[in-house]
Specification:
homotetramer, alpha/beta, Dihydrodipicolinate Reductase, domain 2, 2 domains, five-stranded parallel sheet
């Protein structure tokens, strides 16, 4: 009999839900024991309810599992949530209230004062905010969130710079993959041969989440990072991998080789703790003129490594560079999974 | 017998050369009388030498014309040049030396002190720089250039702002169409499902050309614009139309409606003179949340109108917005054609 | 005051509905006087209700029109219908019953015994089937349909061959554009970098409609064509234009030049009657090795011309060739419009 | 010291050459010891000479190897060849003459009377044709080839049918990936949003190679299969994976389940011998309505499994179905590698 921790997935049939199923298939610590989705899917075998959109085959064991009602009764104590924000706003608190550890990819509670927004390599300490949650006090349940798919790659690239040189100003323009919009998501008639210069609420999320992630835990809350931050978000005809053109000004002036070295040398708790989904190198600088590129670099480190390239001086701020991150792995399911691994390592999952 | 001015096209078989042929087919003032391309094409019928890549049919009359050697002997006095920079650097001076008016789309001479770099709606007065050219004095020939395909849309959007409010800082990130790289240009294996965060020399061109275009004619030279300017250039899987995410800081603070009005109301010499290829409105602001988009907006004003959208406050500079411009029409052949029309209207074409 | 015939559009907000609006903007005979769509759109301005997905601007007059309830009361007597089959099955009879001439693009009634399925260049005579309709007898109303977007290009290419040489066997494999699935239609995650070898019910439609179109009117019904017909349908990452690889065996053996001549010389009623939307040449053979191609050839004849290329011997049947047709113009809205023009010319529209 | 057989790669910098490098990185029997490419690459480190276009990283050891002159002197005795046909026609005989086992992916010698054209699962016995080669007799060297990338998937799907039911007629229409044209290969301006209904010499290759592959070894030659075969080839905007719409007539009538069972149960020498690159199942039938699809199925069996789907009756022949095969793995480098493994197992590599 398995010694693994049983986990549930809320929103299991969507693209991120599928990534959870995929990434948990051979996980050493966790095992999918429960799946929930919309009413439409309830009671059906997962393999029929989900329109599987990943290149690896749907795990047979999970394909046969029956989709449960999305209610805490009967659900395991560890829940991965991949819900639309409007649904998450009601459902995640209900599961936390019922004593579940909710490891969420949704935007609903990310900016709540008592909810940690965490990238384990960046701000593992923020997890302590859990202790301020009313749910935690009452039932032991809690909610931990990971950032938006466009914020996470950026922040992984910014964290080493902020730590060593201190960020003053950040400007980012994204070129985001269609998988970030879920399935069916972006209509082909909208994106073939096209760029859409708009993603609803994305710029706001990127700006506020970046500041919270690079903020400091101060008693019962996070003091956001004090740098100026502006984002512009575009959708492009790419399947997976968000590319970002970034400019930064830093408090302490740095040479190119110092910056590159800050990225390549960066490791943190997940690497030290050898968390199963942690990439050996969270940030890798690519020397080639024309990299990173989504088709060739998004899968680095099993999709958990953020790649950076094209560091060069900026005539307005100090430096400009390109960041790439896999949006449904490092930017969603993998982000939550690494959060859960961190929680387990810290003793929060019992 | 035609009363039109006979013109020649250097580099006639490439993508921009084809656009010249297309745009000149029914032109009221000019008529294609001579075509030159590489040695490989010389002596062949144009219709066979050119791999026609445009949606409209190749004009029959031109298809039958024989490709001439790329030498001034026998060439008409008005020459449109669509050459690679390395070839243009030698060939354009040779034609100017021989008395030709060379209206060039190449980058070779754009930044030369005595060569006007012109967008008729922006800096028509710079044309006077012609008079300082040695060729002009000797043979009457001269060279006039238009900017890079990524600079031209940006500058059309910036000019009304600079004029009314004074630019202080400009940051632009481009998402450029593959036709900007010519034919065969970008390999499909490089761009399908991908973004390439690098276009050789493009950022340098955008930065320096923008400053020259928005500079002031001062005696025998141009004093470049004094604002700070930074560009990042990316290639995306779009056929035609360069999209740009732009942020600006201006000397005089402006409200959104003032900026939009500055764009929509902007007209200049080409509109006043009713030049045949001048769009009624050089810059149009689109109100929809998610526009401009290359597939739907690049062809506005027969490809000569720059569209702008998504004006919103920027947390680092003052304002951010999206610019779109057709890269082989307004950004190349149409740019040169409008320059030629301006020259004709000013009496420079005899 | 306009002397044009007022027409209504059922399903006006969809992709085909939008094509109707676009193609009717400057129509010499018809004028959009009424628009209906789903309940969701009712009562809203068309410009807000429709997510306009065409490259030309939405006609201002129509954008301001209010979307009516989809009921015959208050509707004009000529109705273009662009409805989903399940809705059309109920709604088209209701409008015919109420005395309307329903010119339908839907599949619902195409195969009904008393409903003409018409391509004016192919089987204009089938229109007479109207007289057998009960609606016609009762209220004067009737339904006329045009074929599926994948059948119409094929049949335009087959008709000249059937007429001159007699078809015996036809095999067609399609590569269909995403616009054929409407909007939002095909999800970008399904089609980017992909081929989908399945379109629900499409092969059945192609096979049976082709036989009905090339059948003979015999009293109160159509005797279908007697040749064998097999279709395979695929979806590809193309915006507009269905490409088909076709093989045929014919009763009378023909030389390549005879076949090409049969295509290029083909004209019929619409050309003789000079119907406004009839292309000068319904079928054009392209000599180039690698044509037709959707990006370059779908718009021929304003999207109403079918292009054919690559005629060469087939080692199984007699000949093989490639057919291309614009799927939302010739294959949908333009097809219905040409049918309406034929009906008008034949006196069926009063 | 390695006990592996040292192998060389001719045409090592191209897309197929890169696949050889990738697939040989951890091969249990073979080890890359020598690389050759065009004069331009000679003397440079492979990592610099090759524009690496694969998603996995270039193997470090090979990246540092220096590209050798493309001459037999100093080359290993086992050579994988990925050359253009015109170059292969001269170079492959020269290496065979010098005593090398040339395992070729080129089309140059495929149809030569004494050269085996082999898919190990289909016609392993044809390898014996080596013994009739003059090179073999003189120096021990020989040439073995694998089929064109579009023929190989088709033939893997046909072989089980031919064996059990006997093929009478085959019609295939392909939708081929751009990687099949090498790098830079297909220009993005040619294929974005497009279908190209022509690939030079591809249809001829498919037709004649299919017949040779399914032919019988008869003394010193191959008696080609006696069925009728017709192919139509198209290029689509897909990176990897050729999709084919196929119709067949068979001598012995079969039920759907018999055909599906013939595919799923099919194994041959490579499976029995457990050759390292042999997929467990060479042909897999997918039950879903809309599969196989290149994005989701091309990588099955590490790219060595051919997937089949959509079996349904054909109104002209007996059955129609869709075939998908990875064109640069099973269709090129993997094909040659499996041939080399077969040769090794049969004792031909010393």
């Amino acid at each position: 009999m398995s010694q693994k921790i049983p986990v549930g997935i809320l929103g299991a049939t969507g693209i991120v839900g599928q990534r959870f199923v995929q990434m948990l298939e051979h996980h050493p610590w966790f095992e999918v024991a429960w799946l929930a989705a919309s009413d439409r899917s309830e009671g059906r075998a997962y393999g029929e309810a989900a329109r599987w959109r990943l290149k690896t085959a749907i795990p047979e064991r999970v394909a046969k599992m029956v989709v449960s009602p999305a209610k805490p009764e009967g659900a395991p104590k560890v829940i991965f949530a991949a819900l639309d924000a409007s649904i998450a706003a009601e459902m995640e608190p209900a599961f936390a209230q019922a004593g579940c550890a909710v490891v969420s990819n949704s935007s609903a509670l990310r900016m709540a004062k008592d909810v940690p927004l965490v990238i384990p390599e960046v701000n593992a300490g923020h997890v302590k905010l859990i202790e301020t949650q009313a749910w935690r006090k009452k039932s032991g349940g809690f909610v931990v969130t990971n950032p938006n798919c466009s914020a996470i790659g950026l922040v992984l690239a910014l964290a080493p710079l902020d730590k060593q040189f201190g960020l003053e100003t950040v400007m980012a323009v994204t070129m985001q993959a269609v998988s970030g919009a879920g399935y069916p998501g972006v209509a082909s008639l909208d994106i073939l041969g096209n760029v859409i210069p708009y993603i609803a609420k994305e710029e706001e999320k990127m700006e506020e989440e970046t500041l919270k992630l690079l903020g400091k835990l101060n008693g019962a809350g996070i003091v956001p990072g004090s740098f100026a931050m502006s984002a512009q978000c575009n959708r492009v005809a790419v399947e997976d991998g968000h590319t970002e053109s970034v400019s930064v000004r830093m408090k302490k002036k740095a040479k190119a080789e110092e910056i590159i070295s800050a990225w390549n040398a960066y490791t943190a708790e997940p690497q030290k703790m050898r968390l199963p989904s942690a990439p050996a190198q969270p940030v890798v600088y690519l020397e080639a003129d024309d990299r990173p590129q989504p088709r060739f670099d998004a899968d680095r480190g099993a999709g958990m490594t953020t790649t950076v390239g094209r560091l060069r001086p900026c005539k307005v701020l100090d430096w400009k560079f390109t960041v790439l991150s896999h949006n449904t792995i490092r930017g969603a399911a993998g982000a939550a999974l690494l959060n859960a691994e961190l929680l387990k390592a810290q003793g929060y999952l019992g």
